[in-house]
Amino acid sequence: MSKKKHPEHVNHERWLVSYADFITLLFAFFVVLFASGQADKKKQQKFASAFQQAFAQMALFDSHSSSPAMNPGSGANPQATPKPIELPLATSGQEVEKKITRIVHEQDANGAGVKVGELSVRSVQEGVALSLHEGGFFPSGSAELRPEATSALQRIAEQIPDAEIRVEGHTDNLPIHSAIYASNWELSSARAAAIAHFLLLHSTLQASHVSVAGYAEYRPVASNATPEGRAANRRVDIVFLTKPHVAATSTQAATSN
After folding, report:
1. What pLDDT does residue 119 have?
2. Which domains, from first to last, does the chain contain?
3. How many whole angstroms separate alpha carbon 39 and alpha carbon 165?
């Protein structure tokens, strides 16, 4: 007689083998990720250190340490942040205002070329402004200097303080009708350039310290509703930039000879 075969028992724990393999692979994966992260951090620190040393040699940033501290989660050195450029001031605002006021008083006393009241001084946000009113320096609708005004400008140029200046042209709000200037923008810019050019020719100012701007009718000092107000608005301001101002770049729209 043949023996009866007993049925084999099914092993229900085979999944543990696959699970163990999966856990092992997962562990290996995270170990590799961790090792890569540590290597990248060291590379970033070396990279930042090399940049700091290079900029220190160029005198752009202060050198603090050969191995700059790293912020968590950041690949940049916080100590290597560029500092804003503060433009130097040659003289104080009070000094400049005294000098400009003296120039105006001497000009009024001498009466050389311009009438009393055609020069004025006022404080502005950036410093001190010397205003040259149109009536004494330019014919209506023109950027050509009056011949009789050159002696007054010559005196101003000889005594002008050593400071950074911006020459601004301004007009009233009446539209211009001229074959030369299409609008008040062009007229105000041309007048400012004419004054800047004259000052550079007859003073010790450096062209890199002089900039020119044309504002047309958009920065009035009086109401354009009256003839007196419009006359006050037609002017060229020599603004002495005596108050600290920060600039990202020092590019100037300078007028040269």
Report:
1. 85
2. 15-81 (no CATH), 93-247 (3.30.1330.60)
3. 54
